[in-house]
Queue: 2 jobs
Job 1
Amino acid sequence: MNTVIVPVDFSETSLNAASYAAQLLTGHYGVTMVLYHSYTKADEGANAAESLEKLKADLMEKNIVKMEVLVHEESDFVDGLEKAARHRKADLVIMGITGKSAIAQVLFGSNTLKMAERKVCPVLIVPENATFSPIKNVMLTSDFKSTLNTTPSVPIKDFLNIFKPQLHIVNVDNEHYISLTENYEAEKQELQQMFAEYNPEFYFMRLFDVDEAINIFAESRNIDLIIAVQKNRSFIGKLLSGSRTKTLTYHSKMPIMIMHE
């Protein structure tokens, strides 16, 4: 992982995400954290750049991390952020999300979810009340369907190799609510081989409400971060477009990384 972009609109939510990102990346000297801000009116540029430089100085005073700033005039926030991620060949975007009010969700939360839907790079969503803790336990959600072809093992392993957490692989397909199947066991073996070097632990949830299962498990196992793979046809595929995503991301206390198959 070389470049991580952190968009900042100077709201409390985005500032919390920037603080989380700085703590997460502290000590990883090969990674550059880019504080990004876009504005729509030309006369806003100078003030935005000054504010971003001040934020950079404040964060670097508390955290040991290589940091840059990037300020652009853009008519569309998400398009501008995607372009910046492509131009900088970003490995990750870290964004905040808020659940304070419907207006706040529309303004910043919706942009976060829109960016997560783009396939330029993984997006790490940091809930507004999330506080940083070392990444010791990571939950990988899977529907145990076509795992060999749909699990982005390389970016997942890249992340695991940096932080070296315990990996917990959790079934999130409510079709297995009644019983396990031979296909399920076969897919489990595929995942076991795929992540063998991380000694993954596997879990099957007998709860029909997948959101509830994920949150209960995360709390019981002291999960520090959730990795969810967005598929075109699956529960996770629907995660970013339906009410389930809002339930999971707006009310979760831990960061959620969205990756694409």
Note: The first helix runs from residue 12 to 25.
Job 2
Amino acid sequence: MGGSIFIAMVAAVFLWWFSTGAILLVVRITENFNFFTKLKVCIFSLPILVVGLFGIWKTSFNLTILDSYLAFGSALLVWGWIELTFLTGVITGPNKSQCPKNITLFEKFIRAWGTLAYHEISLLLGLGVVILLGYAQGNQFGIWTFTVLYFARIFAKLNLFLGVPHINAEFIPEALSHLKSYFKISKLNWFFSVSVTLLTLTTVFWVERLFAVQNSHEVVGFSLLFAISLMALLEHWFMVLSIPDARLWRWMLPKTKTKQNYINGDYNGL
């Protein structure tokens, strides 16, 4: 059992790192392409989404160790394709402008929502389809993986909006550079404690489940969920601690023109 837990956690970390790096690589390569070329890239990569959705549906019927891994990987494929459409600037939101100064917090929120609206809708639709494909079957690790990623990302976006001490903007492509104006460098906001608490409780819950189950496929599945939840929790703490996490992927990406990697306290955020 101990070996299965360790292997599953290592696999989760590697798949998270590799899939993130693959997306960033494609985004970096296509950064100077026009919109229609980027659109073609997203369309030609649609099989990734199809394979991911099929994998979640297919693995939901099977209770084996392999299917726990495949369900986890399938959720990453669905998530990754949606993220690709966002980072390439294909599916974002109607608002492409910088955040004006001296406006109310409510107006800033509306404008910030406008920068992400279509992307947020696509994520919500993705969550709905993933749940629909697998909720009635025994293997729901794909659903839970996507759900953890979904809420962790919502929490992260709200924290960037409300203000955190440290923001890494190195991998934000030029097409989405206006998003930086909606970030805020400040002391910790009230929602940070809420989000970290919820992610911590989620992580602890997977640990409890991990040691309560007996079947090998469940041990692997909950180990994968524990690992991905722990990484989401660490991602939030990186907003507080000045840790150069970008080095995990920077070495594998082609060089681009110099940009501001870390937003400083004087940035025009919220």
Note: The chain has a mean pLDDT of 90.
